[in-house]
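B., you asked whether I could sanity-check this one before it goes into the benchmark set. Here's the sequence:
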Amino acid sequence: MITCKQAIQNISVGDFIYTHEGYPVGVVGSISGSTLTITDVHTDADVDLWFVPSQNDELIKRDKKTFVATNNFTQTPAFNAMNLLASKKNLDFNIKGKKVGISECE
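And here's what the prediction gave me:
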């Protein structure tokens, strides 16, 4: 259960919510005034927050579907990991200095 400082606006049951930094919190199960309840992803007694927001974190809803990958990148060079993830979403990237540019493949 998450208690907000003000009444909750523009969020509905079933929405995926995130912190303002983009960390996924969970799926809204119910809303009551300034209280959000996150949907239980399995039947045990623990809280099923994917990420526990800090006090004063802003919660947001994104309109895009979240891309979730289950790849294991242990002992994998960063370039190889980026290549694999980009190819899954039909993206291309280039690296210049310390910046990465990403574009859609046509």
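One thing to flag: The radius of gyration is 18 Å. Otherwise nothing jumped out at me.
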